[in-house]
Write a structure and sequence with these properties.
Layout: H1 3-15, H2 18-25, H3 29-43, E1 48-51, E2 54-57, H4 59-86, E3 92-98, H5 99-104, H6 106-116, E4 121-127, H7 129-137, E5 143-147, E6 156-171, E7 180-181, H8 183-186, E8 190-194, H9 199-210, E9 217-222, H10 225-233, E10 239-242, H11 243-251, E11 255-260, E12 265-274, H12 278-296
Parallel strand pairs: 3-4, 3-5, 7-11, 8-9
Antiparallel strand pairs: 1-2, 5-12, 6-10, 6-11, 6-12
Helix pairs in contact: 1-2, 1-3, 1-4, 2-3, 6-12
């Protein structure tokens, strides 16, 4: 496949405009059109079609765009690393993480890592599971930390670190605080849920499905764990949270907890990298002993 034509196509697909793509690539519009036509002829599929005054991707075009983008992310990653070597730059560690490891595991681990490897630059990005996987597969991160049970087929190597305990918390003084109740009773209360794509949200909805109870009533939806906890501290809602995140609040009697009959939630924490990525594997060999020391001890 002609990679130059593929690159031109990805720019057109991203911009949804031949004119914009031509400006970005600093070539003429006819040159862009020729490259797209040559690519369509080469693969035997139409990639773009007219939509009003603009264009849109065909189904094959959508597929090719999604498959092609990681190639050019990888290319950019290689260029950046080579440029760093030319300039004698320090080694850089780019980490993507879901919210829980980013907030309750990595601060201590990265502080210890920097003491041992002070010259290494560290960039930490946190997001939900879907965003973190995309960042890793798009070569925008070297390694990633997840709290996640179910994995779609993907070219990632996974190392299980430990299991994180979860619990249900609610406002102090709530009638259910300190008691044992059924999940059916609990889901009638207003819940604080994380955004779509959050693994904590997914596990709660999966529990409801397994136990045959309705999905909880969404009282508030947040894009962060700490915001949700603060809402409970302020006296509103029920939430599923990692015990590490709420233990101090429980001790200070800022929130209460409720035991759900027959349910104990422990969620696996993984350290991941792309398959066959030797650079990432070398970075994992440096950080893994530090992570294990902190989590186990």
């Amino acid at each position: 496949m002609n990679l130059h034509a593929l690159r031109v196509f990805t720019v057109v697909a991203k911009q949804k405009s031949v004119t914009e793509a031509a400006n970005i690539l600093s070539i003429s519009q006819p040159a862009v059109t020729i490259q797209i036509r040559n690519l369509e002829k080469e693969i035997g599929f139409k990639l773009l079609e007219a939509q009003g005054r603009g264009i849109r991707l065909t189904n094959v075009g959508e597929f090719l765009y999604k498959q092609a983008m990681p190639i050019f992310f990888m290319e950019k990653n290689i260029e950046n690393r080579l440029e760093g070597l030319k300039q004698g730059a320090c080694e850089k560690l780019r980490i993507a993480s879901t919210y829980l490891p980013a907030n309750f595991l990595l601060p201590a681990c990265l502080a210890a890592f920097k003491k041992e490897y002070p010259a290494t630059e560290i960039d930490l990005y946190s997001g939900n599971s879907a965003e973190t996987i995309k960042r890793l597969t798009d070569y925008k991160a070297d390694i990633a930390f997840f709290v996640k049970e179910n994995w779609e087929p993907c070219a990632l190597e996974r190392i299980h670190l430990f299991d994180m305990e979860f619990c249900f918390v609610l406002p102090v003084g709530h009638p259910y605080a300190g008691k044992e109740i059924s999940l059916e009773q609990l889901v009638k209360e207003p819940f604080l849920l994380r955004e779509e794509g959050s693994s904590t949200r997914e596990i709660l909805l999966a529990l409801c499905k397994v136990y045959g109870v309705p999905d909880p009533v969404v009282g508030l939806q947040f894009h962060g764990l700490n915001e949700s906890i603060q809402a409970v501290v302020a006296g509103y809602g029920v939430m599923l949270a990692p015990f590490r995140a709420v233990a101090a609040h429980i001790d200070r009697k800022e929130v209460g907890w409720v035991k759900v009959r027959g349910i104990e939630i422990k969620r696996p924490v993984y350290l991941c990298c792309r398959e066959h990525d030797e650079i990432a594997a070398a970075l994992i060999q440096k950080i893994l002993p530090i992570v294990k020391k902190i989590t186990l001890g």
